[in-house]
Amino acid sequence: MAPAAGSDETPGEAAYRRIRADVVLGRLAPGRKLGLDGLRGTYGVAIGTLREALFRLATEGLVLAEGQRGFAVAPVSPEDFREVAELRLLLECHAVAASFAAGDLDWEGGVVAAHHKLATLERRLLAGEKADAAQWKRYDREFHQALIAACGSETLLETYAAAYDRFLRYQMVAVVFRGAAAAEQHAALLDCALARDAPRAQRILRDHVEGCVEHVVQAGTLAPFAPRPRVAAQAAPRRAGGGAR
C-alpha cells in the first residue's frame, strides 16, 4: 500500500495515497469508472490534481487511462493474477536468498515479531472470529516484507512492494483466506528464516503464492468483476419487398 502520510505531504500526494489505498484494498471495485467530478467531492482536491494522481496510478497498473473516456480502475482476470503472482515470486524469491544471507539478530527479531502478529490474527480467523480484512492483510504484508528486509537493495524492496500491492488487490477483491494451509506455510517460512534455509523458503513461497491464485480462480470469485463482452448492435430489420417503392 502507499506510504504513510507525512507532515509535509502535499494535497496531490495525499490524494494519490488515498485513491491508491482505495484501489488496492478493493474499496474502488475493478472496472469502476473514475469520474473526475465525483472524485473531486470524495477526495477534496482539484480536477487537475486528481488527473495527475490517476496518471501516476496508471503507470503502476492500478488504473486505466482511457483517452477521451477518462479513467477506470484496472480490471481483474485469472490470467493477470497469474502474471502478477509470477512477478511477485521472481522478486521475493531473489530477495529472500539475499536477506537470509545478510540478516542479523535485529532482523531475526523483526521477522519473529511480524510473524507473531500475523499468527495471532490467523488463529482468531481459524477459530471463527471476525477480523478486519485490511488489518489481517497488513500483518501478512509486514511479515513477508520482514523476511526480505535485509536483502540490501532499496530498489528491490520498492519494486517488490509495488508488485505485492497488485497481488494484494486480488486478495482483497476475492476476500480470500485459505485457512490452516496458509498459516502453516507462514510458520514454515519463519522456521526457514531462523535456520537461514533459503532454498526451502523459496519452495514454500511458490506453493504459498500459487496456492492462493488457484484457490481464487477455482472459487470463481473474480467472475463478478470480469469485463462484460461488448454486444454488437443489431441492424434494423429490412421490410419485405426491399423497402419503399
From TrEMBL:
The UniProt record lists the keyword tRNA-binding: no
Name of protein: FCD domain-containing protein
Keywords in alphabetical order: DNA-binding, Transcription, Transcription regulation
PANTHER family noted in UniProt: HTH-TYPE TRANSCRIPTIONAL REPRESSOR GLAR, TRANSCRIPTIONAL REGULATOR, GNTR FAMILY
InterPro entries named among the record's database cross-references: GntR_C, TF_FadR/GntR_C, Tscrpt_reg_HTH_GntR, WH-like_DNA-bd_sf, WH_DNA-bd_sf
Source organism, top-level taxon: Bacteria
SMART domains hit by this protein: FCD (SM00895), HTH_GNTR (SM00345)
Chain ranges of the HTH gntR-type domain: 9-76
Pfam families assigned: FCD (PF07729), GntR (PF00392)
Keyword Nucleotide-binding among UniProt keywords: no
GO MF annotation terms: DNA binding; DNA-binding transcription factor activity
